[in-house]
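Board notes (copied after class):
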Amino acid sequence: MPIFIDIVNMPKIVIAAINGPAAGIGAALAMACDLMIMSETSKISLIFSNIGLVPDGGATWFLQHAMGYRKALQLIVEGGHIKSEECLKYGLANKVVPDNDLKNESMSWAKELSERAPLATAASKRLLRKSFNSSYEQAFMAEALEQDKVSISEDFVNAREAFFKKTKPMFKGK
């Protein structure tokens, strides 16, 4: 499904806001996002085995990286659910908020992140997405290449000046 690849490869950060159950392919879509915020009563449901199927959308990859092989396999073969607090514990979710606060908290977080340095954010996303399949040396070299690119940007020059002036930097993505 192209949307999964688009989320992983796009330079912008994609936030999943989960309110209620995210089941099946919806769970996989949420896990493909870069960040996840969940309401207290929400959960991720991996119920594929209940209907004779296996997870798709990259769910096995995300679950194994977050939970480890044994816990991920147990969840999948038992057709289980992961409550929001467990998602937070395993690193599947970044934040858990009261149900009534999900929309406001999600929008506030998105606005806050949108004011960050877009070139550095995109580079950080690329680095972390690639690092799952990289050695330390490959990650080290990839970081150096990305740093070379962002360190000559207008955003860096402006942010450095703002730092010394003790003002808030304004990023333009240039």
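Comment from the instructor: The chain is about 55% helix and 10% strand. The beta strands are 15-18, 21-23, 35-39, 43-45, 81-83, 95-97.
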